[in-house]
NAC domain-containing protein 6
Amino acid sequence: MSNYDEEDVGIHFDPTDEELIKSYLSLKLRGEACGDFIVMMDVYAKEPWLLNHTNNPFLMEDAWYYFTPKKQASEKKIGCGKNSKRRITGDNDGIDRGSWKQNFKENIIDEETGNIIGTKENLTYTTRNKKKLKRGDGTSALVPVPVANTAGL
């Protein structure tokens, strides 16, 4: 990956969902290096426009890829799995800035085996405006991988 130069016109990092899981996430889960295109960042720490987005000439315009930690929605249900905390509270001031809302969810299928290797969730960031949610321009795709599926990666 690092053999490319900015002058290499037409070369972009545009992986499929299956490639993201098999070629990048699986390496990350094993503690191996997985290239320069996907960085570790808590994308739920700030509003999307305040994040330090990577500036890489090989990424498509307005496209960024991150590994982010999963936060449980409830302390009582830690390890139970389904609900993730996606609310942005800002700089430790407790003010609700908004949250990521799920639009749809789909399975990611391994083309070789036909097995489900993950799920993709399409999210939209919404802001709070006097207790009402206002749909924002920010969209994101999240590919969570169940712990049971990581053994085969």
